[in-house]
Design a protein that fits this description.
Blueprint (H helix, E strand, L loop, with lengths): L2 H18 L7 E3 L4 E3 L2 H14 L3 E9 L2 E9 L1
Antiparallel strand pairs: 1-2, 3-4
Helix pairs in contact: 1-2
Length: 77
């Protein structure tokens, strides 16, 4: 399969998923700023079923860096 065909396919899958996605629930509170936010768990619960339904797998890898921890998200189609 040509690269341009692969890109067209993942774009179509992402667009189909995006049409179905809603914002995740704000399930946590920042006590210092007194604001609510969506945790990573809430985001994953909101997006994974829809991405998977459209043939998109998600992997997340944690990496240490000088300032803390990075979460790298990779989409596979």
């Amino acid at each position: 399969m040509k690269t341009s065909e692969s890109i067209k396919e993942i774009i179509a899958a992402l667009l189909a998923a995006q049409k179905e996605l809603d914002n995740p629930a704000f399930d946590r509170t920042n006590t210092h700023l007194k604001t609510r936010y969506a945790s990573l768990l809430a985001v994953r619960k909101a997006v994974l079923p829809i991405l998977n339904k459209n043939g998109i797998a998600v992997t997340q890898h944690l990496h240490q860096n000088g300032d803390g921890v990075l979460c790298e998200t990779v989409l596979l189609h």
